[in-house]
Amino acid sequence: MADMSPFFRRGAAKSPEDRLVTLIRKPGCHLCDDAQLVIEEVCGDLGVPWEQKDITQDPQLHDQYWEQIPVVLVDGAQHTFWRVNEDRLRKALTE
């Protein structure tokens, strides 16, 4: 059963490989670059997949997060914005 539904998995602790970190950023943003370095290190250490989205390419993200860039989502829920705390991110991904 390779494809488990989200309903089936609800309530079960996720392993780091089953998490997803999303960095919402914009070009030329030094805080975004700083956030990416932390995400790359933490996700690399833990084996967590991550992605980045450009706020200038997505009107919905732009409207929702423009004043908070960079924004970090964990499994689609907002984890933090502006500055990423390495220890806090690591804890969120391993609990």
Describe the overall structure.
This protein has 95 residues and is an alpha+beta fold. The chain is 39% helix and 20% strand. The protein contains four helices and four strands. It has helices at residues 6-9, 30-46, 59-65, 86-94, and strands at 21-25, 50-54, 71-74, 77-81. The protein has a four-stranded mixed beta sheet with strand order 2-1-3-4, with helices on one face. Strand 1 (21-25), helix 2 and strand 2 (50-54) form a beta-alpha-beta unit. The two termini are 25 Å apart.
Strand fraction band?
15-25%
| Structural class category | alpha+beta
Order of helices and strands: HEHEHEEH
Termini Cα gap: 25 Å
Give the overall average pLDDT: 89
Number of DSSP helical runs: 4
Which spans have pLDDT < 50 for at least 5 consecutive residues? 1-10
Task: Give a quick account of the main beta sheet: strands, pairing sense, barrel closure.
Answer: 4 strands, mixed
Overall geometry: globular
Strand order of the largest sheet: 2-1-3-4
User: Radius of gyration, Cα only, in angstroms?
Assistant: 14 Å
Say how many strands there are.
4
The amount of helix comes to 25-40%
Question: What is the strand and helix layout of this fold?
Answer:
Blueprint: H1 6-9, E1 21-25, H2 30-46, E2 50-54, H3 59-65, E3 71-74, E4 77-81, H4 86-94
Helix pairs in contact: 2-4
